[in-house]
Amino acid sequence: MRLVVLLFQSLCTSTLAAAQACPDYADYAAAPHAPFSGGVYNLSYQRPAPSCRTFTSPAVESTIARLNSTITDPDLSRLFENSFPNTLDTAIKWKGYAADNADEELTFVITGDINAMWLRDSANQMQSYLSLLNTTTDTSNSSNDTIASLYRGVINLQSRYLLSNPYCNSFQPPSESGLPPSINSAATNDVVTPSYANTTVYECKYELDSLAAFLEISTDYYMATNDLAFFSKYNWVAAVQAVLNTAQSMTISTYAANGSVNTLPYTFQRLTTSAEDTLANKGTGNPVHNGTGLIRSAFRPSDDACIYQFFIPANMMFAHHLNTTSALLTAMGTTNSTDLATELTALSASLTAAITRHGIVPDPVHGAVYAYEVDGYGGRNVMDDANIPSLLSAPLIRYLAQNDSVYQATRALLLRADTDPYFMRGSVIDAVGGPHDGPGFAWPMASIVRIFTSGDDGEVAGSLKELVASTDGLGLIHESINTFDQSIYTRPWFSWVNGLFGQMVLDLETRKPEILKRSFQ
């Protein structure tokens, strides 16, 4: 086995050396390349040369070929061809084995143009290929060239990160990779409790959805492969315990019963000109009430600070995946795993009840709707942000059914500019945005979620046409777009949203195949 490890690591080293001759994909993605699609938008080809791709999957390549023969519109076909493999093509920065365990796979997945691994992003990037896991029949640790192997490597590396720094959201390459840590100039003067080393952590913003993302990728892998043995081999159970401990620590209120101020286990302060990039009240955030049963989140999935720290979408996502993880632990059958499963089930039930009790608020037009954030005192923030988890994505994160009456009322509120302050409109695209890029910038991610959560053919086709028509001819999905000028956009290389687009097209292939036969010219 040691010889196999050394040969694989040698191959990785050779691959890294070859990659040095490849163009920086952030630059490559910002320029057009032939061959063009030939459609009215004449979309560019954006896949790196095969020798410059960071991972290749035959299952992904055959999926692209199948969809290209299924999709009628040349621009939609090209956008899928570019976007679906983007994480594999560009973002598998390193893949190898743990130094202290020769068969423990590790996968370092960067978010795109930032050379760091986010727990949330990497889990979502892998979710793009979830439907292909059951086509990857060899899930044994002897096979290191499959989608299943990438999943195992991400889960193992996330476990390591969570055991060392469970309040942090973004991490540096593992020491085994030989890759140098990246400098995060924004975080240089951060004052964070608990402290961390910037050689292992890129940024330490506590986000409840990051913890939920680890549970999600773990149970997704298990349900797709039935590879139960994997979860007892390394540090996964300990990492789940760390997730539970961290979440429970953040149920703390601002004030104790006698009126004294509680000491929070996590605080964050940053020297910045952006109010969204630091926390009020000496790094603790705005006060939250006692006894709600909700879990605090200091930051949103956009990495922006919460106004009210009972962030409902993350509580939804966490509640759901506590249950799925409990089922996995129960299947493992050890005393430790079943005891932990019982704790997760109980927390999921109480959290769901708390969301219903405190997260649903009255709206004068739409009736009962979900708030984006609450504080337990009656303070509520009724809006949405494009990043997942969002209120719009509640069915996608599997918290509730798409036809849930409160969700449908919430959805109607969120997709109107007169009731959602971050619903952006313009001649290019209409979609939810957020404070991260500010007013006037819609996020294609929200348009993709809108398609996922709609059963209306007109709504689906209209949003899909906007996505095809708003890449500035480059043929990749961008982070955000000026709603009146598609040449003004953020992040030419953002792998998560590109994979999400591909995932959505595959969903339409099953759910609404006739849409893929339409013209979007």
From TrEMBL:
The GO terms describing molecular function are: catalytic activity
Q: Which UniProt keywords apply?
A: Signal
State the InterPro entries in the record.
Answer: 6-hairpin_glycosidase_sf, 6hp_glycosidase-like_sf, GH125
> What Gene3D superfamilies is this protein classified in?
1.50.10.10
Q: Name one GO biological process term.
A: carbohydrate metabolic process
Name the domain of life this protein comes from: Eukaryota
Q: Which Pfam families match?
A: Glyco_hydro_125
Leader sequence residues: 1-19
**Record protein name field:** Glycoside hydrolase family 125 protein
Q: Which organism is it from?
A: Letharia columbiana
